[in-house]
Design a protein that fits this description.
Rossmann fold, 6-stranded mixed β-sheet, 13 strands, 330 residues, Dihydrodipicolinate Reductase, domain 2, 9 helices, 25% strand, 2 domains
């Protein structure tokens, strides 16, 4: 099997470190691993396949010989350095928002639109974490019944805000000195209906991402409205999803379809207290679905509870899966 030179940009961040971990766990055929980060992080070491790999300062010429570059260092870094990586011959899989809505750049979740991967001209965008787990569930149901409308409310982990979000929660819970305030209000014992910036229409950018990205990934307009909430959970996003369909369906039919869907695990026996929870999704790559039940307020409606590890399937794992598809060529 051919092996590849792989770079991870933002290697010392929460998602970057998880990318390295997922590359190792999934035995991605890495020849040389190039770890890149800010000057502040240069010189640190991260273990990979039992050996320490030194982090280098991010510079354009670091991409010489790199075949895959996984970016997770923010939109500004991606806008500056992704074209430089492509110029050196790398395929960039970018986890920031920089390229997601660019019509020329594929926005990919392999279980949903893997063929789009091969339409790339050097850059492939990784969707927003909350969007990824949602579309993995929506796609097989849309194919079966046709989605008329989706209403989603999210309960998103502090890890979605990176290491600084996790640090704020830990500092507040321990009553320690606050290193840096990531959120505008306390997050411990609280819930903030505020993720990213607000637009003039009252929606947040996180909500806008879910609405716009879902349609692009699904390949057609999907009517979706969202409310996104940050909760004091240390890992894993949860979503309450209400779907109205064009065709009649039952809860059992939905349960059966999702039990066979790629990347989905159904956990749905509430009488025995079996349902998805972030604590059970931790360090897993699947999307978990439960609380499947009819919504009798509309002609054909279903309620779902959807949970996934946002740092893995919502970011790092999805990026590695895209690279795996390119390696396999199918």
């Amino acid at each position: 099997m051919k092996h590849y030179n792989v770079a991870v940009v933002g290697a010392t961040g929460l998602v970057g470190r998880t990318m390295v971990k997922v590359l190792e766990e999934r035995q991605f055929p890495v020849d040389e691993l190039v770890l890149l980060a800010s000057e502040r992080s240069a010189g640190k070491e991260i273990m990979f396949n039992g050996k320490p790999v030194k982090v280098q300062k991010l510079e354009g010429d670091r991409f010489k010989g790199v075949e895959f570059a996984l970016f997770s260092a923010g939109a500004n870094v991606s806008l500056e350095y992704a074209p430089k990586a492509v110029a050196h011959g790398a395929v960039v899989i970018d986890n920031s928002s920089a390229f997601r809505m660019d019509e020329k750049i594929p926005l990919v979740v392999p279980e949903v639109n893997r063929k789009e991967i091969f339409r790339n001209t050097g850059i492939i965008a990784n969707p927003n974490c909350s969007t990824i787990q949602l579309v993995v569930v929506l796609k097989p149901l849309h194919d079966a019944f046709g989605i008329k409308r989706v209403v989603v409310s999210t309960y998103q982990s502090v890890t979605g805000a990176g290491q600084k979000g996790l640090d704020q929660l830990m500092d507040e819970l321990s009553n320690g000195g606050l290193r840096e305030k990531k959120f505008p209000h306390p997050i411990a014992y609280n819930a903030l209906p505020h993720i990213d910036v607000f637009f003039d229409d009252g929606y947040s950018k996180e909500e806008w991402k879910m609405m716009k990205e879902t349609s692009k990934i699904m390949g057609e307009p999907i009517k979706l409205t969202a409310t996104t909430v940050r909760v004091p959970v240390m890992g894993g996003h949860s979503e309450s999803v209400n779907i109205e369909f064009e065709k009649p369906c039952s809860a059992d039919e939905v349960r059966n379809i999702l039990s066979k869907a790629s990347g989905v695990i159904v956990q749905d026996d509430p009488k025995k207290n079996v349902y998805p929870m972030p604590i059970l999704a931790k360090d897993r790559d699947e999307v978990f679905v439960g609380r499947i039940r009819k919504d009798d307020t509309v002609k054909s409606g279903i309620n779902l509870w959807v949970v996934a590890d946002n740092v893995r399937k919502g970011a790092a794992t999805n990026a590695v899966q895209i690279a795996e598809v390119l390696v396999k060529g199918d």
